[in-house]
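Intended use. Records like the one below are meant for learning the mapping from a protein sequence to its folded structure. Do not use them to infer anything beyond what is encoded.
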Amino acid sequence: MDWAQLWAIISQPDNIPIVALIILVPFYTWLWLRQAKATDTLIAELEANPELAKTHHRKIHPFKKGWARDVHTWPYLLRVEFLAAIILTIVLFIWSITLNAPLEEPANPNHTMNPAKAPWYFVGLQEMLVYFDPWLAGVVLPTLIMVGLMVFPYIDTNPLGIGYYTLKQRTVALWSYCLGFIMWLGLIFIGTFIRGPGWMWFWPGQSWDHTRVIYEVNRNLPDLFGIANPYGKAILGLIAVGLFYGLAGWAIHVLVTRSELNRKIYQRTNLIQYLTFQFFAISILAALPAKMLLRLMFRVKYVLITPWFNI
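Structure written out for the chain above:
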């Protein structure tokens, strides 16, 4: 899209949350990294000086004499949360009054939108339809994401990093979440700003041309090896998926056991917990970007082809 089209998209009322994400996510990421770095510095100092660790408090903020060591949830925490809820409600009132709802005219079969895009919070799923079949992109993968977010607290055996920001003590959990969050934001960004008419790829600065025709031939993985037999296609796909899961699982295992702390946490984790973590990490954090690269760079549509489903 050219810059005028970019401004037209950004200024739409239903895309304001995306603009807010572009501003707020980097700010709060910087704030988190700043506090995590200060905490890790304090942890290193206390580990290097056992005598200081016996008397020093575990918070990065200075502790003054006369302060209570423990405070009650009410009124200190709930008062802040109540004020935050009031402020957020006021913001939503002003937002709804000053900006019109993005409602359009009734559907007209003689004049369809091009491109027809879902709301910003669903456009990531719409972008996933480029790389997966609808049953995978619309049902299986979102279900795995939601179930994975619910399961992770039960398979996390790391007792550290609770109640304070830290990088060194929660590397696996933090990088797993950040990678998944960045991928989801990337899908939203691509679907909103990169995909144009016909859901074609337009780089920033390119004008959306509704008459544009691209000649790109999608092929399946068995086609690259000249395999036409249905059973041969299924066998090759199973081998490819099995190799991917094996190599990705090995790479993830190497990454999550690099530090001494993570190796101790790995020893605390039972087999079911670790295999569950590996399944979700490979299926979401590794398979999704791998399939995107295969489709965008090599025009490979399907890897596993069967009479019942394709991946």
